[in-house]
From TrEMBL:
It is an enzyme of class 2 (transferase). Glycosyltransferase which elongates the O-linked glucose attached to EGF-like repeats in the extracellular domain of Notch proteins by catalyzing the addition of xylose. SUPFAM superfamilies: Nucleotide-diphospho-sugar transferases. It is found in: Membrane. It catalyses: 3-O-(beta-D-glucosyl)-L-seryl-[EGF-like domain protein] + UDP-alpha-D-xylose = 3-O-[alpha-D-xylosyl-(1->3)-beta-D-glucosyl]-L-seryl-[EGF-like domain protein] + UDP + H(+). PANTHER family: IP22168P. It comes from Spodoptera litura. This is UDP-D-xylose:beta-D-glucoside alpha-1,3-D-xylosyltransferase. It comes from the Eukaryota.
């Protein structure tokens, strides 16, 4: 009888611990479901795109990336009619230049854009570690949730990215977040023989292939609730000798332990040379067209990827305020045709499909 009682007591004790454990798992799975303002509920989502009045887009720029970052702004404005609010973090030398240029563009575009400028700012403790973690000041993005506390959500992009379609299409993905998701990114790759993370990473990373953070939808409200900024310094200090990609690696480490917090985007929303230099590795982009081109590893500026250079050149030469329908697509097509042969160049239709379709809606030919 005593033995039975002891077994019974052990059983009850184990049952209690099991219930408490399951309760804690359920509670933690709901920890992001706070303040849904930037993300409409699933019940409100339909197949028809919702009317978007304003998009918030951010980037961080230091040193020599000024002209490159202006082309981010140009590419956004070329392919949309919605109001775009740019949140720009820049060093002391560049902020006056941004203020002068973007104030002019704001007037020229009848206030289609507005902007706010912030200085680059890291916590004083470990400031130099943060400033030079990868490229200068790139890690600033990790602290954005606390630096702009009144902003609910934004699209963050690296300065070496170009939109080829309407920014509001990417913004729509916020409506597809479930209650646990606070960010959306594309995979680094989906081929274990090409993707850097499964071959070389010495730190934890997201899923099987890791995430590329060059394009990142950020539900800042949920990131603040999660305590995002509290994570980043301990991770940096623990792994700083093993994270060659800096802030991207820190993001991967966080989402390794919180996989359900990420909504994975198609490779067409972060199309890099890895998707085409060895052959067609992004079927969605081939089928529906490249939406956002990411010239990582200086693909816009060296001669290794002439297809990427062709698109960048056409946008770089466009002047805000002139009629884009006359030259932009023509120049894209011409520079692409003139470019040296390459595997990426074999996918011309994928590069031009989205801008051509978008222009046909925004700039229809006049009736004759």
């Amino acid at each position: 009888m005593k033995r039975f009682s002891l077994k019974f007591m052990i059983f009850m004790l184990l049952s209690t611990f099991t219930v408490l454990y399951l309760y804690s798992k359920v509670s933690s799975s709901n920890k992001y479901a706070v303040n849904e303002r930037p993300v409409p509920s699933k019940a409100s989502i339909s197949n028809e795109p919702t009317q978007i009045e304003k998009v918030v887009l951010s980037f961080v720029v230091c040193d020599s990336r000024f002209n490159e970052s202006l082309n981010v702004v140009k590419s956004v404005l070329l392919f949309t009619r919605v109001h775009v609010h740019f949140v720009i973090f820049a060093d002391d030398n560049l902020r006056p230049k941004f203020d002068e240029t973007l104030t002019k563009w704001k007037q020229i575009t009848n206030n289609q854009l507005d902007f706010e400028l912030h200085r680059v700012s890291f916590p004083q403790e470990h400031e130099q570690d943060w400033m030079n973690l990868f490229s200068k000041c790139a890690a600033q993005r990790l602290f954005i949730p606390e630096l702009i506390p009144d902003t609910d959500a934004m699209i963050y992009v690296d300065t070496d990215t170009l939109f080829l379609g309407p920014v509001e299409e990417l913004w729509q993905y916020f409506t597809q977040f479930n209650s646990s998701q606070m960010s959306a990114m594309s995979l680094e790759d989906d081929n274990p023989n090409v993707s850097w993370y499964p071959r070389f990473a010495k730190h934890p990373f997201y899923g099987k292939f890791g995430l590329n953070s060059g394009v990142m939808l950020m539900n800042l409200t949920r990131m603040r609730t999660f305590g995002w900024v509290e994570y980043v310094t301990p991770i940096m200090l623990k792994w700083k000798l093993y994270i060659p990609w800096g802030d991207q690696d820190i993001i991967n480490i966080i989402f390794h332990y919180h996989e359900r917090a990420v909504h994975v985007l198609s490779c067409r929303y972060n199309y890099r040379t890895d998707q085409c230099m060895y052959g067609d590795a992004c079927a969605d982009a081939t089928d529906r067209g490249i939406f956002l081109l990411h010239g990582s590893r200086r693909a816009f500026h060296n001669n290794k990827q002439p297809a990427f250079q062709a698109i960048y050149r056409a946008i770089d030469e466009y002047e805000i305020g002139t009629d884009p329908s006359k030259y932009v697509l023509t120049n894209m097509d011409r520079y692409f045709t003139e470019a040296s042969p390459s595997n990426c160049g074999n996918l011309k239709e994928a590069f031009l499909k989205v801008p051509t379709k978008t222009f046909s809606h925004l700039y229809p030919p006049p009736d004759r």
